[in-house]
From TrEMBL:
It comes from Paraglaciecola mesophila. Pfam families: Glyoxalase. This is VOC family protein. PROSITE patterns: VOC. Residues 213-358 form the VOC domain.
Length: 360
């Protein structure tokens, strides 16, 4: 493992767990960790990979809109490209340039690995409709969603609906306000601007401008039990919150049919306070099944990457669980995940999961 990269990884983890100690100590927060980071197998979500042919639009949204920084195109050696083709099942006739998008000064924020493809590929989604199955969004905590909403619309991005403000219960039954807008990001992805009010800690650290994230990623799924069991049994993650919600319908941020109910599960790495996943499973409306697989090399949000303490344990868990193993561990030196053993799996819905080993 590259020493500089190891220091960055452990620094991000320390920042996350230090945030937990301070932000959640007296916050009466239902999402506060009750587990310990020392028991985590998979650590918080580290990198999200998005394939695109629209570099300009991607930079407009994530850099100019959400305030992320950009590096690239990165230098990818022939050996690393060969490894990536095997790990991600990229076809031989497809090439790409790699960009890294990140939040300066916030090591615990999720990185975006942006793959700018040499030619169009099928899209993971057919529209921005929030009932479409598959990877749904990246979440951007910030201290002023009203201002961020105005900014994103000014530079040309629409949303599923107007900004929604709604109450969420604390552990003692009192409530705090959330302001949320779900923007139509490039490639039929969604970018969520979200602010927790009434003194609540944001869902991830924010910078001097009040912007943070990505701090989480969401999917729309069916068969919650098999999906969630994969993340808990194979990756060792934990379900922190699991409730049934009735949406605000056509007044809500997701702009769903009136009366829609859905299971809403929030999954964290043990001991973590950010880098989590949200899973939506509709109860009384039919989800929409896109035509194409929710995975690279298709255009859109096609992979999640997790640091893990033991890649062998993950592979053993995957075998015991009957999960699809795409690639056995390979030694790589990757500018986004460092020098590490890397393997890939598929979640039950076909979504690609990358794991890379980090030793404490």
């Amino acid at each position: 493992m590259n020493i500089r990269f190891l220091i960055l990884i452990m620094g991000a983890l320390l920042a996350s767990f230090t945030l937990a100690k301070h932000a959640y100590a007296d916050s009466n927060d239902a999402l506060a960790p009750k587990s310990s980071a020392k028991d985590a197998l998979a650590m918080p979500l580290h990198t999200v990979t998005i394939a695109t042919v629209s570099l300009e639009q991607s930079l407009l949204f994530y850099r100019d809109g959400m305030g992320m920084q950009v590096e690239g195109p990165l230098t990818i050696s022939p050996a690393l490209e060969k490894a990536h083709r095997a790990l991600w099942q990229m076809p031989d006739d497809l090439s790409w340039q790699t960009y890294r998008l990140y939040r300066e000064g916030i090591d615990s924020a999720i990185q975006i690995r942006l793959l700018v493809l040499s030619k169009p590929m099928p899209t993971i989604h057919d529209s921005w409709n929030s009932r479409e199955l598959g990877p749904f969004s990246l979440g951007f905590p910030n201290t002023d969603t009203i201002a961020l909403d105005k900014h994103l619309r000014t530079i040309g991005f629409g949303a599923l609906n107007t900004l929604e403000s709604y109450p969420i219960p604390r552990a003692d039954g009192s409530k705090y306000q959330i302001d949320e807008t779900i923007f139509n990001a490039p490639d039929f992805n969604h970018g969520v601007a979200i602010t927790r009010g009434n003194g609540m800690a944001q869902l991830g650290p924010t910078d001097a401008n009040g912007k943070g994230g990505p701090a989480y990623s969401a999917q729309v799924i069916t068969d919650s039990e098999s999906q969630l069991t994969f993340y808990t049994d194979v990756l060792g993650l934990e379900i922190r919150s699991d409730r049934v919600f009735k949406s605000a319908g056509d007044k809500g941020a997701m702009n769903l049919p009136n009366g829609t109910e859905f299971r809403f599960a929030i999954v964290y790495s043990k001991g973590a306070t950010t880098g989590h996943m949200l899973f939506v499973d509709f109860h009384n409306v039919e989800p929409i099944k896109p035509k194409n697989a929710p995975s690279l090399p298709n255009i859109g949000l096609g992979m999640w990457s997790f640091p893990v303490r033991s890649i062998q344990q993950v592979m053993d868990n995957a075998k015991a669980h009957g999960a699809t193993i795409v690639s056995q561990p390979k030694q790589v030196n990757d500018p986004l995940v460092g020098e590490s053993m890397v393997a890939t799996l598929r979640a039950p819905n076909g979504f690609l999961i990358e794991v890379f080993e980090v030793q404490p």
